[in-house]
Structure formats: C-alpha cells, structure tokens
Automatic annotation (TrEMBL):
Protein name (record): non-specific serine/threonine protein kinase
Biological source species: Vitis vinifera
Keywords, in A-Z order: ATP-binding, Kinase, Nucleotide-binding, Receptor, Serine/threonine-protein kinase, Transferase
Domain Protein kinase: 1-250
Residue sites binding ATP per the record: 48
Lineage start: Eukaryota, Viridiplantae, Streptophyta, Embryophyta, Tracheophyta
Pfam families, alphabetized: Pkinase
Length: 262
C-alpha cells in the first residue's frame, strides 16, 4: 500500500477511531472485522484479534427462547443486513460470507447483532469464475448451490432471508419454506406463522416493521437468484421509511407479501 507497517497501523487506528464499535462489521471466534478507509480513499476490511473480553457475545440462537420483543428483533435483522451490505458492496474485493445462519450471528447485551465466523468467507474476484466447493449450514444454503459451484452474493441473500424469517417466527422456518414452495401458501396467514410466544404487534408502526421485514425476507428466499434483492437494496430499504401498503394486520397472507413489489 506504499506504507510501512507503523504508518499503516496508525492510519487504521485513526480511520476506526481506535477500533470504535461503530466501524465493526463482523466478529468471529478469534477477532472482529472493521471497515477502514485509508488516506488514499481505498476501503478495506481489517481483522483485529480478540484479547480477553469482560463480556462474551452470545449466539443468536440462545436468544430465541428469551421472548425478545418485535422491535428488538427488527433491529437485529437491520444490523445483519447493514453488515452484509458492507461486505458485498463496500469492500474491495467484495466479501461473500457463505455461511450466514443464526449460529453465526452474535448478539451483545444490548442485542446488537454482529456477523461472525468468517472461516468460509471468500473474496469475489471479477477476473475469476469464482468456482468453489459448497459450504454452509444445512437449512440456510441457497437452493442453486445444489447444481452450481459458482459463488455469488445472492447465496448470502438467501441465507439472510432464512435468518430473518427464523427471527420473526421464533424457530427455523423449514416447514414454512416447504409450504411456500407449494400453491397452498396463499392460505398461510402472517399472524399464524409469527412467534406465538409474543403478542401480535398492536402499535401500527411496529406492525408495519414486522410486515415489511417479513416481506423482504420472502423476497430473499426466491428460488431464482436473479430475482432476489441485493443486500445493498435491503439495507437501504430498512434504513428509510418506505411507504408500504398494508391491509389490516390480521388479513395479511404470505402469498400477498410474496407478490408485493418492492
């Protein structure tokens, strides 16, 4: 990069404000990944090895039995979307995680989400075919990886959609995914699949967020990769107040959400 190690390290410290948490885009068993913009303008991802921490982040799965409310669940999904968007669209070259699952999402005591375990991550090379062996966690792997070894960011998008649905319904959506692939999905009502341990959202704003997150998740699990949104689109839509037409909450079906246009 044209720098000696000391100057480069000082640039990293300055760019991350001494590794401030707001620059952290992911964490794993041995370290955390930070977004760094160098003086040259180039944006890179830097991994900082962990030292002993007083607070250990917990796996997202451990919180599924805690009755976490709708707003916090929506915020967790937003955090994951923003992290994956950065990896896919702001890193050079782009980083594809390839194993997005609830086991690889860590939450701190404030329920802030961090993408973890970059052991299977791959850099996308525009001059390469990006062929690789299939990796990932069963139940989260995009269906096209059954017949192709080409890595694209859309496989992460599918996995994100599964995690988002899992967060909303309180368990892995394996049965729901099977049902959605059949014509009977038009009879599945949103109210019937949401986590039954929580009261259905009564606040109109919270209800809108729950519906919108579920809508985006359904777009992510489309069987055709080219029909899935990008993580950048998802991150953007989760940041702004999108005017989203909504029937009365009790009347919304998953089929209606599947057919709704972003």
């Amino acid at each position: 990069m044209g720098y000696d190690g000391r100057i480069a390290y000082e640039d990293i410290i300055e760019a991350t404000e001494d590794f401030d948490i707001k620059y952290c885009i992911g964490t794993g068993g041995h370290g955390s990944v930070y977004k760094v913009q160098l003086p040259s303008g180039k944006v890179v991802a830097v991994k900082k090895l962990h030292r002993v921490e007083s607070e250990e982040p917990a796996c997202m799965k451990n919180f599924q039995n805690e009755g976490v409310g709708w707003t916090k669940r929506v915020n967790v999904i937003k955090s994951i979307a923003h992290a994956l968007s950065y990896m896919h669209h702001d890193c050079t070259p782009p980083i594809i995680h390839r194993d997005v699952s609830s086991n690889n999402i860590l939450l701190n005591s404030e329920l802030e989400a961090f993408v973890s375990d970059f052991g299977t991550a791959r850099l996308l090379d525009p001059d390469s075919s990006n062929q690789t062996l299939r990796v990932g966690t069963y139940g989260y792997i995009a269906p096209e990886l059954a017949y192709t070894m080409k890595v694209t960011e859309k496989s992460d998008v599918y996995s994100f959609g599964v995690v988002a649905l899992e967060t909303m319904i309180g368990k892995h959506p394996s049965e729901l995914l099977t049902s959605l692939s059949s014509s009977s999905s038009q009879d599945i009502m949103l109210r019937d699949v949401l986590d039954p341990r929580l009261i259905l959202p009564g606040d109109p704003r919270v209800a809108k967020d729950v519906v919108f997150v579920t809508f985006l998740a359904l777009k992510c699990i489309h069987s055709k990769p080219q029909c899935r949104p990008t993580m950048q689109q998802l991150s953007y839509n989760l940041l702004i107040d999108v005017p989203f037409p909504m029937l009365p909450f009790y009347a919304i079906s998953l089929n209606q959400l599947k057919n709704q246009v972003i």
